[in-house]
Amino acid sequence: MSDRARHWLERIRALALPPRVRIMNVCGGHERAISLAGLRGALPENIELIPGPGCPVCICPEEDVFEAIQLALNEDIILVAFGDMLRVPVNAPKRDARSLEQARSLGADVRPIASPTEAARIARAHPEKPVVFFAAGFETTTAPVAAMLVEGVPDNLLVLLSGRLTWPAVAMLLESDQPGFDALVAPGHVATIMGPEEWEFVVDRHHIPAAVAGFTPVSLLAALYSTLRQLLEGRRFLDNCYPELVHPGGNRAARQQLQQALDVTDANWRGVGVIPDSGFAVNHAYQEHDARRHFPSYADDARKRAGEMPPGCDCARVVLGKIYPNECQLFGAACRPRHPIGPCMVSDEGACRIWWNNGLREPVAKPTRTAATP
Q1: Which of 326, 334, 336, 332 is nearest to 366 (CA)?
Q2: DSSP class per residue in 18-45
Q3: What's the predicted TM-score (pTM) here?
Q4: Pairing mode, if any, of strands 210-213 and 183-187?
Q5: List of domains in the chain
Q6: How far is CA 211 from the centre of its chain?
Q7: Lowest mean pLDDT among 30-44, 58-72, 141-155, 356-370
């Protein structure tokens, strides 16, 4: 740990904290950084760091994954998607393809990609057939998709969009009867695109301390210290602990492209339900590149129901910060990275996968909020 990180840690340890303080870190990248740095073990025991809903693979609705699988299996297309999406399971009989990876093993042309530019390159290389880009993600990955559409793409490139905004899920938690946390660490990469102002509602409407953080122990510890000081002093404000990249207004060009190519709509979150104004959809101006307008019959509305997780899977409660990953009865037993049952064990931003990768591989016998953590 660097001297600067130790400095913030010592300042945190010197605070006269109450017996229990719960701080939610929204972002999967934050959860990964916290676990890799061993921050939970270094912080005072009365500080609980709660993983939040910032894993796009985890909350991508089952009907969207199912639609992508059916497109790949039944149409003469090339389907491309970010690598993690290929392993996300859906509820289907064992005889059917349960993931895009299994669809590929059955002969579908499914390819992992790392960026929208790769999707455009594949479309240009195969002008004879449609290339469908299954684009799932939050603002930071949806903004490049919007930029790709605005800047121009091959006629045969279609987008099956499953984009989501991050803040509405946090707003939903705060507006519930039991939010489950006392302070918030907001995602730095989202604030880089959308601006830190998106998170002011946490302070203004709910009077909860908040700080935007980057992905180093120094930035995260500075944000934790800021929220703890706010709690102790009775002050509430949105602190920016990632000033290197987060600026007022965010990335104006990226925000303009999002507004130009996409509409904000109500959207379903897997295992959570529909959250108002939380999703992106390709707008009318770019409808010729909307895969849903070309293949409308593969949307399965019957799958749009809250709680659509495999039997016994508690990914939804993990995503909402209601339980820790090792409090799921399947964690480390039936559900492991090689054979994930729920989406939280698939992605490197899923809390279950992060905890497994950092050495915590056994479920707790009796779930508690102070379960052993990485």
Answers
A1: 326
A2: -S-EEEEEEEHHHHHHHHHHTHHHHS-T
A3: 0.92
A4: parallel
A5: 3-55+178-241 (3.40.50.11750), 58-165+251-303 (3.40.50.11740)
A6: 18
A7: 356-370
